[in-house]
Write a structure and sequence with these properties.
Blueprint: E1 3-5, E2 12-14, E3 17-19, H1 37-50, E4 54-56, H2 65-77, E5 85-90, H3 105-119, E6 124-129, H4 138-151, E7 154-160, H5 164-176, E8 184-186, H6 200-207, E9 210-211, H7 234-238, H8 240-245, H9 249-265, H10 269-278, E10 287-289, H11 293-302, H12 309-316
Parallel strand pairs: 3-4, 3-10, 4-5, 5-6, 6-7, 7-8, 8-9
Antiparallel strand pairs: 1-2
Helix pairs in contact: 1-11, 3-4, 4-5, 9-10, 9-12, 10-11
């Protein structure tokens, strides 16, 4: 597996990032569709064997269960802690209390401590703002993250889906206080959702920020996983975000084009969707979420696919602007 630089930071990551949202306790909110720890092991093994050492989770995935499972997998598949790059996220609710969510100094510090405990590690390589939740001033947010950096509990910072002006303002404040700036942006990006190309992607490319997109195959939509005869996967039936994102005429036309290109080159639709994301020079490492090992193996094989300029043009031609999604 090729290693690439995370933007202009000194951190090296694998060209694919293993997404761990699918690992948890089946039936538990907020992700009742996940697979359990035993089933997750096969995916961790495929990732480790392929050299995918960049793993991504979040405190709220499985209400903490994903971090616990990922922490145990780290000990099993990494010979030493420095072999891997671990990313997690905070901001979403982790309890019923008024301060159990958001980006106050209190919650940022306490959420980080909670993640470290669940992950059974002394430090987090890359800590993301999951979403801009709550009313904490940007100055407070930046100061709290700077505290974690200075304590050595976090090595690099990132942010996820937000407006480009918000990300730019946060980074400007970090520079003003002499803090390390956000090195990564984890945003929603795939063939059926390209609104990030307007401002966020050009900003990240200009500033040397690593881009680690989530949902590169549109939550499986671009794999051609469409319901047949009323049947749906467990995730499709229970994931409210999944239900609301894809399915317009435009989406299906893009999927048709993906399937055509896949047939022409002898590949799977999902591999064409991954290959398209990987063709963009501003992309560092797309996040690959899988519940079955073969899904991860397909993504790995996509690294060997190089789409032609005409194929890329054909895949993109059906896209027209859509409403902004993924920020909440």
């Amino acid at each position: 597996m090729k290693s690439v630089q995370l933007g202009k930071s000194g951190l090296m990551v694998s060209k694919l990032c293993l997404g761990c949202m699918s690992f948890g306790v089946p039936g538990r909110e907020p992700h009742p569709w996940v697979i359990d720890e035993d089933a997750s092991q096969a995916n961790f093994k495929v990732a480790a064997d392929a050299g995918i050492y960049f793993w991504d989770t979040a405190d709220m995935y499985g209400a903490g269960a994903s971090e616990e499972i990922t922490g145990r997998a780290m000990k099993k598949y990494w010979a030493k802690r420095s072999d891997g790059v671990l990313a997690t996220k905070l901001a979403n609710a982790m309890g019923e209390g008024a301060n159990d969510k958001g980006l106050s100094r209190k919650h940022i510090i306490e959420a980080c401590e909670g993640s470290l405990k669940r992950l059974q590690t002394d430090y987090i390589d890359l800590l993301y703002i999951h979403r801009l939740i709550g009313n904490a001033p940007f100055e407070e947010i930046c100061a709290a993250f700077d505290q974690l950096l200075r304590q050595g509990k976090v090595l690099y910072l990132g942010a996820s889906s937000m407006w480009a002006w918000q990300f730019a303002k946060l980074r400007a404040l970090q520079k003003e206080i002499g803090s390390q700036q956000f090195a990564a942006m984890q945003n929603f990006y795939n063939l059926v959702y390209r609104e990030e190309e307007r401002e966020m992607m050009p900003y990240c490319e200009d500033q040397g920020i690593g881009v680690v997109p989530w949902s590169p195959i549109a939550r499986g939509f671009l794999a051609g996983n469409r319901p047949k005869d009323g049947e749906q996967s467990n995730r499709a039936k229970t994931d409210k975000l999944h239900q609301g994102y894809f399915g317009s005429k435009q989406d299906y036309e893009i999927l048709r084009r993906v399937e055509k290109v896949a047939k022409d080159i002898g590949a799977k639709p999902a591999q064409v969707a991954y290959a398209w994301v990987l063709s963009k020079p501003f992309i560092t490492a797309p996040i690959v979420g899988a519940t079955k090992p073969w899904q991860l193996e397909e993504a790995i094989a996509a690294l060997d696919i190089s789409l032609t300029a005409s194929q890329i043009k054909y895949l993109e031609a059906a896209y027209k602007p859509v409403a902004v999604q993924g920020h909440s």
